[in-house]
Specification:
The complex is a heterodimer of chains A (about 325) and B (about 300). With about 325 residues, chain A is mainly alpha-helical. Chain A has one domain. Chain A contains 12 helices and 2 strands, in the order ααααααααββαααα. Chain A has a two-stranded antiparallel sheet. In chain A, α1 (about 5-15) packs across α8 (about 145-180) and α5 packs antiparallel against α8 (about 145-180). Chain A is globular and about 75 Å long. Chain A starts with a helix and ends in a 5-residue tail after the last helix. Chain B is an alpha/beta fold and about 300 residues long. Chain B contains 11 helices and 14 strands. In chain B, the strands form 3 sheets. In chain B, strands 6-7-8-3-9-10 form a 6-stranded mixed sheet, with helices on both faces. A 4-stranded antiparallel sheet of chain B has the order 2-1-4-5. In chain B, a hairpin with a 2-residue loop joins β12 (about 255-260) and β13. Chain B is elongated, with a radius of gyration of 24 Å. The chains are: A mainly alpha (about 325), B alpha/beta (about 300). Chains A and B meet through α1 and α7 of A and α2, β6 and α3 of B. Chain A: This is ABC-2 type transport system permease protein. Chain A: One of its GO terms (cellular component) is plasma membrane.
Chain lengths: ~325, ~300
Amino acid sequence: MSNFRDLLRNENMKIYRRPRTWLMIGFLILSLLLMSGLMKYDEVRNDSSDWKQQVTEENQVLQQEIQNNATADPDFVKNMENEIKLNEYYLEHNLNPNELSMWDYVNTSAMLILLVTILTVIVAADMIAAEFSWGTIKLLLVGPASRTKVMLSKYVATMGFALLLLILSFTVAFAAGAALQGFGGLSLPHLSVSADGIIHESSMIADSLQQYGFAIVSLLMYVTFAFMISAAFRSSSMAIAFSLLFMLVGNSLTMLFSSYGWVKYLLFANIDLTRYLAGNDPIRPEMTLTFSIMMLVAYYVLFQLVSWLLFTKRDVAA
Amino acid sequence: MQATTMETVLQLRNVTKKIGGRTIVDNLSFDVPAGEVFGFLGPNGAGKTTTIRMIVGLISMTKGEVIVKGVSVRKQFAQAMTHIGAIVENPEMYKFLSGYQNLVHFARRHSGIAKERIDEVVKLVGLQNRIHEKVKRYSLGMRQRLGVAQAILHRPSVLILDEPTNGLDPAGIRELRDYLRKLTRDEGIAVIVSSHLLSEMELMCDRVAIIQGGKLIDVRSLQDTTDSPQARIMIDVGNTALAYQVLTDSISDLKISILGKQLEIESDKALIPDIARLLVKADVDIYGIHSSHKSLEDQFLEMTGGEMVV
């Protein structure tokens, strides 16, 4: 009987022996390099040798604003006050805020996790559906392995691909940052202003990993969703289309209906956990981080259950 | 092949499939001994493919049991599948992989298939020169051979072939037939094959099950039919009317008809010398006598009431 490791090796072979996979990986690396290049270009173009003067002027403008808007939204005022504090900190410690450090590259690369998600969705969509369109599903299932095991090996292989892309993004962005800015910024602290108005220094790598972490939540959900559609309809194009559609319109849809109470039960309303970070608002005021995590877990379990039922219980007739 | 003395490797017990109230396969039961080529015959839609897919677990059974070497496919699927090798319809392989990689893929699912076994099977199907090429560059015949290789890698006891000759040219069909013979003879594998090409089945199988409307109509040995004395005798004569007259007068209850310049007689082969003598005595010119036994197709059409769509 098959052991899981061998099934996983088979699935990996089928992913990485396809030229398409390497095209996708190349595309991701190219995008990362392009992003890094543009960031550097932007920095060089905007000369910031007189940054001290700029920051001082900025603070004066902010002070003016606060005086003019004394009655305005307290959050708004608070944000500006925090900005002034940060600027003062920069001046005090002689840190040029406009100068990029290698961590800026890594943090910006977190935005490209959207691309990683799309690429993984494409792979996930093919995982089950392609076996049907190739006709290989029959030989795949007529083997000494339960369908549950076959499906699990496919899911784990998909997640392995996502992990590979994530590590690749992080490494390429880190390397590009180091190449363009040097390792000087490696130990720079991450600055943030806490609720009580005190400036905190924290580790940059922790901040980057946090950014990645939040992006991975949506990656996990969309990829699992694509996997489910792939198992349900046995069609890759449908799985890709539905997942991308939801990724693109999900957010605007929730915004559009955010005045209704039921919106909080939608996947899209919960998928972006950065909304619970300081300075952001959730879609609905009554939503909490715990609620969103519970909703996400519920959706995840539902997706897995539906995939499993449809993959293991249905006849393969065609 | 003496069916009765061989160990039974595949048993079907009241296998039934119902889809939405319609019975596709109805209470099918039969045994297949080791070393036998067992054919499935039936008009399109009779339930051949459904039955085969139930044996390999692609389609679930509504009722009944399939037992492979004493292991139930329904209850211990993975265990049962270690004894089964299958080619379901056209041998679909991963086209972006080489033939060898495809075999590695299928070998990995079974524990303990050494590299040597893969090489051995590759040699057996005669693909050693092209095995490292991508499957997309293979001809259909080569893919079929790779399909056979994949199916026998793990030395199964039962080999299942669903419409294996679909799309193969006559040489390819013959090649496949020879492999199957070799496998049953040398390795004692039981082969279950479904096809709608009756002449092929006739050459390939030891026994055939005839299915119609999901029901088993008959299981018969093909050895019996080829040895059967009942034959169709065609006689090419000069004067058909005279010959017809002579024969109907002399032999009672003779099934005879005139087909153009020929007489067609359905009768015992032992009657041929008598017929010839009678015609010679009556001064009828004979240009040829040809006898053939009833083909599987004739028998099949008889049994299924001509409901054949080939």
